[in-house]
Amino acid sequence: MIRCFVAISIPKTVAPQILAAQAGLPAGRPVPAENLHLTLAFLGEHPEPVVEDVHHALSEIRSPCMDVQLEGLDAFGNGRVRLVCIRAVLSENLARLNASVKQAARLAGLNLPREKYVPHVTIARCGSKGASGEDALKLRDFAARKAGFRASFRAESFVLVRSYLGQSGPSYEDLAEYPLTWLQTS
Ligand code: 2AM
């Protein structure tokens, strides 16, 4: 079985800004630079032939290159804090790409949940239980203090990523990269 998701990679030029935003994290486990990404759709675990069908469907997507804007930090979770992330602006192009990726995955037979897309780059995770009490308060305060964070980059492709779950957190492997077109800009 292959656990996988579709994402926009964070360019090496932007990673240092994101790592700087992690500085002073009061709790949780920081996401290492090589794991930073903007998820377009989490696909779950599937047999290899299904993932190959998804790959072929993703290859058919024609979507324009786009500027991705990162704005402010957030601490996600109901009551507890599950993760700390940097929010991405949901531009028209990003929303369309998210819809195209989900449509491609469904065409390949996947049953994806119909949930609202909240684009973000996770910068810290707080385990399966999440952070509570003092730690949760500190994490929310940390995110609020960094509300002025801004960064942007040009996305010229998106990737199909395999995720391996390990004791010390997940590790990722790019399975395929799909170019975005230069025909239209955001
Ligand atoms: P997250 O950063 O908000 O946790 C790989 O796990 C990527 O897929 C992560 O960016 C993760 O988002 C996203 N994802 C979405 N739904 C998921 C799920 N049910 N399990 C694991 N990852 C999920």
What does this structure look like?
The protein is of the alpha+beta class and 186 residues long. It has a single domain, classed as Cyclic Phosphodiesterase, Chain: A. It is built from four helices and nine strands; from the N terminus they run E-H-E-E-H-E-E-H-E-H-E-E-E. A hairpin with a 6-residue loop joins strand 8 and strand 9. Helix 2 packs across helix 3. The radius of gyration is 17 Å and the shape is globular. The model has no long low-confidence stretch (mean pLDDT 95). The structure holds adenosine-2'-monophosphate. Adenosine-2'-monophosphate (2AM) binds next to strand 3. The site of adenosine-2'-monophosphate has 6 residues, from strand 3.
Summarize the structure.
With 186 residues, the chain is an alpha+beta fold. The chain has helices spanning 15-22, 48-59, 92-107, 133-145; strands spanning 2-9, 29-30, 37-46, 66-76, 83-88, 120-125, 150-155, 157-164, 171-179.
SSE blueprint and pairings:
Layout: E1 2-9, H1 15-22, E2 29-30, E3 37-46, H2 48-59, E4 66-76, E5 83-88, H3 92-107, E6 120-125, H4 133-145, E7 150-155, E8 157-164, E9 171-179
Antiparallel strand pairs: 1-3, 1-8, 2-6, 4-5, 4-7, 5-6, 8-9
Bound molecules: adenosine-2'-monophosphate.
